[in-house]
């Protein structure tokens, strides 16, 4: 991964789109992006405005938050409520929930799940790209 890691990011993916356009003989991009695809579309438009034909961005992710933050707040605004509900049900289910076998309270279950994501966040050091680029 060391020699190729620098090429795994959103700006490089945007540049790769030009290679695809050239390969199929198309001058301008016709694009419809949703969720992360809106970040890719915005990045492409910023880097290659002369090759933009029609671009539709649906379910737009905040471009500035994406590049600035490890996990943009807007990307997980409802996630905490969903997780709280999930862990409430896990506690109610007792032994029928796999997480309940090592954590009886929803707070401990939540902390356990958070630990899964910490290595990815810590691995960000030394990279110029955001964590989203590493994880996607």
From TrEMBL:
<dbReference type="InterPro" id="IPR000073">
    <property type="entry name" value="AB_hydrolase_1"/>
</dbReference>
<dbReference type="InterPro" id="IPR029058">
    <property type="entry name" value="AB_hydrolase_fold"/>
</dbReference>
<dbReference type="Pfam" id="PF00561">
    <property type="entry name" value="Abhydrolase_1"/>
</dbReference>
<protein>
    <recommendedName>
        <fullName>AB hydrolase-1 domain-containing protein</fullName>
    </recommendedName>
</protein>
<feature type="domain" description="AB hydrolase-1">
    <location>
        <begin position="12"/>
        <end position="60"/>
    </location>
</feature>
